[in-house]
């Protein structure tokens, strides 16, 4: 449950934004849900909240493929960054360097293959070698997807399940990090007052959904 005023404000603002967009451009979200076609741009930016790429460039949702982190770095040995670049260049056609999540969809396709799970390395994208950054990055999600027993579930029903279960897992993972466990164990009330929330953005409606799986100091 979103009990914090700032979260209630964000969800309320999202609801109003979705209504405004739909009123100004009917069917925008339905078209957006069909897929993304970024205009040949991968934005590798800083996580700084004052530099939202869509706002400062006047871009629309779907215009820019984005990867943000502290100090907009691109470590050569970071599989996360490498996977973003590989997906942008090889699958989106980006040149300058959804509830329908392409990564989750790929993992679902892999988990619904008749041969899943295969012996040996797990290949989420069979056309790519195991060592490819995308296969390495998606392997944990494909493993999770396989554990959900969705092999015979229609994709339109299964994909939202995969997406929500992935968010739940990431909330759990975040909650186990040294950074958060130390914060929650702190005697400093300000440091201890940090929470992890799980939200899902629905591309077809433009709305955020609170999965009500918040973790905080009382969860420890």
Could you give the order of strands across the largest sheet?
A: 1-2
Helix run count: 9
Overall structural class, as computed from helix and strand content, comes to mainly alpha
The helix/strand order is HHEHEHHHHHHEE
Major sheet: 2 strands, parallel
Which word captures the global form? globular
Low-confidence parts: none
Radius of gyration, Cα only, in angstroms? Answer: 19 Å
Beta strands, count: 4
End-to-end Cα distance, whole Å, is 17 Å
Descriptive report:
With 220 residues, the chain is mainly α. It is built from 9 helices and 4 strands. The chain has helices at residues 5-24, 28-32, 53-57, 79-90, 102-111, 133-146, 155-175, 178-185, 189-192, and strands spanning 42-46, 65-69, 199-202, 207-210. A two-stranded parallel sheet has the order 1-2. Strands 3-4 form a two-stranded antiparallel sheet. Helix 5 (102-111) packs across helix 6 (133-146) and helix 5 crosses helix 7 (155-175). The longest helix has 21 residues, at 155-175. The radius of gyration is 19 Å and the shape is globular. The two termini are 17 Å apart.
């Amino acid at each position: 449950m979103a009990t914090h005023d700032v979260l209630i404000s964000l969800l309320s603002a999202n609801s109003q934004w979705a209504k405004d967009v739909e009123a100004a451009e009917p069917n925008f979200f339905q078209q957006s849900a069909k897929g993304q076609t970024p205009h040949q741009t991968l934005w590798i930016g800083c996580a700084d909240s004052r530099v939202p790429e869509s706002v400062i460039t006047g871009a629309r949702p779907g215009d820019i493929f984005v990867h943000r982190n502290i100090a907009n770095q691109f470590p050569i040995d970071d599989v996360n960054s490498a996977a973003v670049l590989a997906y942008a260049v090889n699958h989106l056609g980006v040149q300058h360097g959804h509830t329908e999540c392409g990564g989750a969809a790929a993992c679902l396709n892999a988990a619904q293959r008749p041969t899943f799970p295969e012996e040996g390395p797990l290949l989420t994208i069979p056309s790519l070698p195991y060592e490819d950054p995308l296969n390495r990055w998606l392997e944990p999600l494909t493993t999770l997807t396989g554990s959900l027993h969705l092999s015979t579930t229609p994709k339109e029903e299964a994909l939202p399940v995969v997406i929500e279960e992935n968010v739940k897992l990431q909330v759990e993972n975040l909650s186990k990090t040294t950074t958060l466990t130390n914060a929650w164990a702190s005697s400093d009330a300000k440091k201890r007052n940090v929470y992890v929330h799980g939200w899902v953005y629905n591309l077809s409606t433009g709305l955020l959904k609170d999965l009500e799986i918040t973790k905080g100091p009382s969860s420890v």
